[in-house]
Design goal:
By secondary structure, the chain is an alpha+beta fold. It has a single domain, classed as Heat Shock Protein 90 (2-Layer Sandwich), CATH 3.30.565.10. The chain has 3 helices and 5 strands; from the N terminus they run E-H-H-E-E-H-E-E. The protein has a 5-stranded antiparallel beta sheet, covered by helices on one side. Strand 4 and strand 5 form a beta hairpin. The longest helix is centred in the N-terminal third of the chain and has 22 residues. The protein starts with 6 loop residues before the first strand and ends in a 28-residue tail after the last strand.
Length: 169
């Protein structure tokens, strides 16, 4: 994996852009070998992280920067087999050990974003950025597939028994 992200997006801390960030992350995850359910979960984890930045880090200000960087994680054979996502901001810094959700036994709306992120992703690491802001590094490996996805090709679609694949385009 190179030091330079394969995708880097800057967006403002405006909730209007959350759906676009979810779509981007979910689409890239699909191309990197994740099934639809995992793509949705990864997009949800990113959405929760962005909402936390907007709500808690920037106190709902809609004009502050957030950066999303994405790298593929290659498997042993060099094919895409996972994803690394880094989300950075210039929001107020907190101690990484304080980044935890409320107790799950406390039944009420909200406060589950950190639990969701940690449940969905293989690894979620919070750290302070040098100077100001926070960095969240998320990683997830894709489950091995019978037909691995290769960049530049479309994943094979299952054909119901007895149906033929259309020929040509």
């Amino acid at each position: 994996m190179s030091d330079r992200p394969h995708i880097r997006v800057e967006l403002l801390s405006n909730p209007i852009y959350l759906s676009g960030a979810r779509e981007l992350v979910g689409s890239v995850a699909k191309r990197l070998g994740f099934d639809d359910l995992d793509c949705s979960k990864i997009a949800l984890a990113v959405d929760e992280a962005l909402c936390n930045i907007i709500r808690h880090g920037y106190n709902r200000r809609t004009d502050r920067p957030i950066w999303i960087s994405i790298w593929p994680i290659d498997d042993a054979s060099g094919r895409p087999g996972g994803i690394k996502i880094v989300i950075e901001d210039e929001a107020k810094q907190v101690e990484p050990m304080q980044m935890r959700g409320r107790e799950l036994s406390d039944i009420r709306p909200g406060g589950l974003g950190v639990h969701i992120i940690r449940e969905v992703m293989d690894d979620a690491t919070y750290e302070r950025r040098e100077g100001k802001g926070m960095r969240l590094t998320l990683t997830k490996k894709a489950e091995a597939q019978d037909h691995p996805v290769r960049l530049g090709s479309r994943p094979p679609s299952p054909t119901p028994a007895g149906e033929r694949q259309p020929s040509g385009r």
